[in-house]
Amino acid sequence: MAYRISVVANKELKVGDRVQIDTESMSVKDADNNVVGYVANTAEQVAPHSSSASWLTNLLEKGKTGGKLVKEVWGILTEACAIRTSSTKLTPRFYAELFFVQEHQKKVSTMPKYNFCVGGVNAKNGGKPAVITALTKAQQDGSPGVLDMTISAQGDTGVFTYRVFVADNTNPAGELLVETEEQKKVLEKWFKHHDSLSAKTTGVTYNKATPSGTATGGIGYELSAEFVEASIDDFDDAIDNAVRHACGQDPEVREKVSYLVSEGVSKDVINLLLEKMSPSCLADLPEKPVRPYSGKSDILGDALAFSILGEHIRLIGDKGSGKNTLIQTICWLRNQPIVRIQGNVQLDKMDLLGCPQLIDGRTTFELSDVMKALRAGKTVVIDEANLIRPDVLGLLHSATDEARSVLVPGYGLVRLAPSAQVVYTMNEGYQGTNDMNEATVDRTPTFELGQELSLSALLAGYDKKMVKMCQKVSDEVRKAVSEGQLSNDAVTIRGYISACERAKFVPLKRALMYCVANKVQDSAQRQAIAGIINNVCP
């Protein structure tokens, strides 16, 4: 939600300046704490479609800025418009969009929390471990399973409580509670010498109806866990600073940090994002993807860091591997406007650079959308870039190297803004694709995205029975592909998402026929996939 007021300046200000609002006097200060104006309050001074000092005072008193107390109010000047304060004098006036730095709850404990991702659990006696059964049950019921975990480090041993929220490998699985100084010392010793944790459980405690739980096994299980360094509480100061720089309201910024923590992105990358995030009042900002990118590798954090640092990147992978979702997620996180260009063999230099135009009898040069976007600091995504002729794509070489500029014949030099970025996405080996120019490849770090085999995260929010049936159909289709009975065209991710969405109105079986089976062009393969769907779906 946008909050906009009118600021009357008594010293020099300009659009884009950050200002702080004194909530007592309603004076306006610059970043160096100098008074440079005040919040307008009279009908003559308040600009149209903005609010007054009295409105802001009432808003803060009623606590309507996100549910928490506000400790600072900052604004960014977005538009200028003068007012006449006397018959001869014009006074500068600005629209200012407000951002509220909120009070944080005091920490109950100074003890750190160590979050982990489950890497695997193996029973010594074979068979399906009781721990997996219990954790799966906990996940289904929405309650955490509880493990007693013994950790030994450099001669010291501690017994910890480990609360598990997800039983599979796709999401951060829980937290290890650090409740005593002795436990803290054990973990500090451990992580001084290790990046990951291998610990032994002494059984599993889980019972939804009984808070204290009941032991379901006494056998020791080996549980390997990857250490996730960050906790959202670690970023309170950095989040406050991002809000001060107009990167978003506290809940919006905190949502992004929470997502990155849940994906296991490193603390350094999250802090880099909060430091370099663009203001949220820019035009054409991307919305949060319906399902942000989620993967088991480090690709999200690495690609985000490369993007923030100004690298142009290349994303390769089969259809449905998440290439577009990844870059949409990164642009949402960064507050980075995005322009998408569809690559094809007919794309020529005028599409990338621009061309002369005849307007009102005069010839003028009109820059392409690509050049305008790069000059404005946007991310330009060129989809299926290897369908474009290499000589045409080579026109962007000087944009994607140290020069960061393009000499456009008939126009002149176009310089890329610091935040501008080119992203190439492509499927390799598909019909009509070309090998890319070596100079193009050399300029772009390349991320290869693999197919996501588990649909549980991708279909989160849909009925669990539907997701289970989609997973079974997907597994059977992939098995047939691996055995050579079906082609790679039968593999899809979008098809299952579309089917679950349409299943709100038509039976899932028919939705899968339309969205999965019928997308394959070979009639014999369509019939084979239809047979799989008929066998799985009632």
Descriptive key words:
538 residues, alpha+beta, Rossmann fold, 4 domains, 6-stranded antiparallel barrel, 23 strands, globular
Structural account:
The protein is of the alpha+beta class. 30% of the residues lie in helices and 25% in strands. The strands form 6 sheets. The protein has a 6-stranded antiparallel beta barrel. A 6-stranded antiparallel beta barrel has the order 9-12-11-10-13-14. The chain is globular.
Biggest β-sheet: strands ordered side by side in the sheet: 1-4-3-2-5-8
Radius of gyration (Å): 28 Å
- Helix-residue proportion: 25-40%
Number of structural domains: 4
Name the CATH class of the largest domain: Alpha Beta
Any idea what the CATH architecture of the largest domain is? Answer: 3-Layer(aba) Sandwich
Give a short overview:
Residues 108-131, 165-173 and 198-229 have low confidence and may be disordered. It contains 16 helices and 23 strands. The chain has 538 residues and is of the alpha+beta class.
Present the secondary structure layout:
Blueprint (H helix, E strand, L loop, with lengths): L3 E6 L8 E4 L5 E3 L5 E5 L13 H10 L7 E11 L2 E2 L5 E2 L1 E10 L11 E10 L6 H12 L3 E9 L2 E9 L9 E4 L3 H13 L2 E10 L15 E8 L7 H9 L5 H13 L4 H10 L22 H10 L4 E4 L6 H12 L3 E5 L6 H5 E6 L2 E6 L1 H7 L3 E5 L6 H4 L11 E4 L3 E4 L5 E6 L11 H5 L3 E3 L15 H19 L11 H9 L5 H8 L7 H14 L2
Parallel strand pairs: 15-22, 15-23, 16-19, 19-22
Antiparallel strand pairs: 1-4, 1-8, 2-3, 2-5, 3-4, 5-8, 6-7, 9-12, 9-14, 10-11, 10-13, 11-12, 13-14, 17-18, 20-21
Helix pairs in contact: 4-5, 6-7, 13-16, 14-15
